[in-house]
Design goal:
about 230 residues; alpha/beta; Rossmann fold; Arc Repressor Mutant, subunit A; 2 domains; 5-stranded parallel β-sheet; 8 helices; 12 strands; about 45% helix
Length: about 230
């Protein structure tokens, strides 16, 4: 999923990009309103994070132009303003949500997942049920979550890519290079520690016993496998 981050503060913009790329998103960065509009047209992102107070064009102006071009694209405003009038104006322009500065990483991720769920769910209902089952776990990609009995497990985009790939190759070993290429991208500098840490974190979330995993099993020296 491709995200456009339009924010004139370099540290905030780069911090958001680093955070979201670690979650599996592809990020495009814009430092002002004019650049945000040009990058939007060039890359057609799946979601836009839009700072309100930017040089050249403010976030309201960019949002208006986006809405004239695409009424359904999820747009989240980033703002230091807290006045109710600004929130009303933003929502009237078609923003899907607000993130107020200063914000925490968990809030950003949660709001992006929530907005994405709302935007993707109707499409998934019309086209097909995109869920799949791994053991006693039902994976629901369009909801960015998994279900086990009455337990809801939140998943990142990269988590979903890993699980989908293992499910599609069920019974087969997926080697480490294939996981990196599919779930991180071919341009990503492969780091064994990065993969192991992510798999370990994912196991803690989805396995009943992280020390004896049944969904993501290790094939030593090669990669990972999902057994039926």
């Amino acid at each position: 999923m491709k995200l456009l981050i339009a924010e004139d503060d370099l540290h905030i913009r780069q911090g958001l990009a680093t955070l979201l790329e670690s979650e599996g998103y592809e990020c495009i960065e814009a430092a002002d309103g004019d650049q945000a509009w040009q990058l939007y047209l060039q890359h057609e992102p799946d979601l836009v994070l839009l700072d309100i107070m930017m040089p050249k064009q403010d976030g309201y102006s960019v949002c208006r132009r986006i809405r004239q071009h695409n009424e359904l694209l999820p747009v989240i405003f980033i703002t230091a303003k807290s006045e109710e009038i600004d929130q009303v104006l933003g929502l009237e322009l078609g923003a899907d949500d607000y993130i107020k500065k200063p914000f925490g990483s968990r809030e950003v991720i949660a709001r992006i997942r929530a907005v994405t769920r709302r935007s993707l769910r109707p499409v998934a209902d019309i086209v097909e049920d995109d869920s799949f089952v791994m053991g006693d776990l039902q994976i629901r990609p369009s909801e960015f979550r998994a279900l086990r009995d009455n337990q809801v497990i939140e998943l990142s985009l990269r988590d979903l890519k890993i699980l989908r790939l293992l499910f599609e190759q069920r019974g087969k070993v997926v080697n480490r290079d294939a996981l990196f290429n599919h779930c991180w991208g071919r341009d990503y500098f492969a780091n064994s520690r990065t993969l192991d840490q992510h798999i370990s974190k994912l196991r803690k979330a989805i396995e009943l016993n992280g020390k004896a995993p049944r969904i993501i099993t290790t094939v030593h020296g090669i990669g990972y496998r999902f057994e039926l």
